[in-house]
UniProtKB/TrEMBL annotation:
Pfam families: Aldo_ket_red. Belongs to the aldo/keto reductase family. Residues 140-307 form the NADP-dependent oxidoreductase domain. Keywords: NADP, Oxidoreductase. Gene3D superfamilies: NADP-dependent oxidoreductase domain (3.20.20.100). Residues 1-20, 42-63 are annotated as: Disordered. It comes from Grifola frondosa. GO terms for molecular function: oxidoreductase activity, acting on NAD(P)H as acceptor; oxidoreductase activity, acting on the CH-OH group of donors, NAD or NADP as acceptor. This is NAD/NADP-dependent indole-3-acetaldehyde reductase. InterPro entries: AKR, AKR3C2/3, Aldo/ket_reductase_CS, NAD(P)_OxRdtase_dom_sf, NADP_OxRdtase_dom. Residues 49-63 have a biased composition (Low complexity).
Length: 407
């Protein structure tokens, strides 16, 4: 049976880009956040895309002849693109944009200055918000550990999307890193997740505790971490999530590790459809995840992936290995840049429009993750080949109970 490589959810950007059997990169700019510099053809000047100012709109289609290698290099520091959009008047913004272009070019050609690539690819959600494609997590390797230094390093090296959770026991250190980074709130995207409620505790109380630890006045995304922690209470819990969204305390709300039956239960009577379902997603669970992915696609719920590097980190030697290796070689030749197998897995997720939530203890790896955003697309055949190889075996690492019942 042929693996399904159609987009995993109804995504205006990907539906436009990606029809089964044909994948044409026509509108890379559509992925970018407002205020984030648009990809420009090699050699042309950087321009900030500001939705309130038509003169900054990229001509359409921006990317005919668009070269992935020419993504704008953005300097790190307090004047990130998104921040400029939010807080600086248009004239000044334009002047700063020109200044940044010159500065960025000077940096690019000066031998000593370090250049920081910034994560800038975003994916639309069903509530009108956008989620940065690349997320840096404070679970797994950082679970129950102080995450301040790791998160600060990630932010300083261009990460904007931070994935936390009450269960990870380190929201304070995530908040400390955010504060220490000096970034404005609007330039970062912060997720946290609800754990099991204590006896008599409301969702609102648990949420406010998280918010206090994070030292924030809102989160971008609030998720129910595990359906099994709220057996029989999912609808009531979701009602409280809806209230938090209405108040603007959580810009988007969603779920994690949800099966079809959990989504069905939650959606019955819901006024807000979850924006995302964060699930373990890599080639070795493609087949098992298919029912829930299909259901989510029907309801406009975006899958986000954790554990995406499993084939190279936790199950080496599986049938996906040779496929990754040959795609890596092809991409390296095509792009003229070094490409890793981890990046091929990231590109596989990107091709499906699925954000990658990952983590690392290494600066070089952060750079590698961010650089994935600017590598060329996988071909439809390559996406198929990874799906097919992954479907030969099943390896789930997290939330094993998901396999005990029909997804
Ligand atoms: N919702 C949930 O239930 C749930 C469950 C699990 C995770 N998550 C979220 O997702 C985040 C990431 O999860 P994950 O750790 O499973 O992500 P992952 O992307 O599958 O793995 C990341 C790990 O892979 C290692 N790595 C990367 N490239 C490597 C390579 N080439 N060779 C060897 N090791 C390599 C990194 O270690 P180095 O330090 O060596 O780079 C890092 O620890 C978590 O922190 C959490 O925020 C959510």
């Amino acid at each position: 049976m042929e693996a399904d490589i159609s987009p995993a959810f109804p995504n205006p950007v990907l539906d436009e880009k990606f029809t089964p059997g044909q994948y044409t990169p026509t509108s890379a700019t559509a992925f970018l956040s407002p205020g984030i510099p648009s990809p420009t053809p090699a050699g042309s000047a950087m321009k900030l895309y500001d939705p309130s100012d038509p003169s900054t709109y990229p001509s359409s289609p921006v990317s005919s002849g668009y070269d992935n290698s020419s993504y704008v290099v953005q300097t790190s520091g307090p004047l990130g693109g998104a921040q400029m959009h939010q807080e600086v008047p248009a004239d000044l913004r334009r002047a700063i944009a020109i200044g940044m272009t010159v500065f960025s070019l000077l940096q690019r050609y000066s031998s000593k200055s370090p250049i920081t690539l910034m994560s800038s690819l975003t994916i639309p959600l069903n509530d009108g918000n956008r989620i940065p494609w690349l997320g840096f997590g404070t679970g797994t390797a950082l679970y129950l550990k102080d995450a301040e230094q790791a998160v600060l390093t990630a932010i300083n090296n261009g990460i904007i999307h931070l994935d936390g959770a009450q269960m990870y026991g380190n929201e304070e250190s995530l908040g400390a890193a955010i504060a220490a980074s000096g970034k404005t709130r609007s330039s970062l995207y912060v997720t946290t997740k609800l754990d099991k409620l204590r006896e008599g505790q409301t969702v609102r109380e648990a949420f406010l505790e998280s918010l206090g630890k994070l030292k924030l006045d809102y989160v971008d995304l609030y998720l129910i971490h595990m359906p099994v922690a709220h057996e029989g209470r999912l609808k009531a819990v979701w009602k409280e999530f809806e209230a938090l969204k209405k108040e603007g305390l959580a810009k988007s709300i969603g779920v994690s590790n949800f099966r079809v039956r959990d989504l069905e239960e939650l959606l019955d009577g819901a006024t807000v459809v979850p924006a995302v379902n964060q699930i373990e997603y890599h080639p070795y669970v493609v087949k098992a995840a298919q029912p829930v992915i299909e259901y989510m696609k029907k309801h406009g719920i975006l899958p986000t992936s954790y554990g995406g590097l499993t084939p190279i980190v936790r199950f080496k030697g599986g049938p996906v290995d040779p496929v990754l290796s040959s795609i890596r070689e092809r991409l390296q030749k095509t792009s003229g840049k070094p490409v890793t197998e981890g990046q091929v897995l990231g590109l596989w997720l990107r091709a499906k429009g699925i954000p990658e939530i990952t983590t690392t203890s290494k600066v070089e790896r952060i750079k590698e993750y961010i650089a994935t955003e600017t590598l060329p697309d996988l071909t439809v055949e390559e996406v198929h080949a990874i799906d097919e190889a992954g479907s030969q075996v099943h390896h789930r690492v997290f939330a094993q109970w998901l396999d005990a019942a029909k997804l």
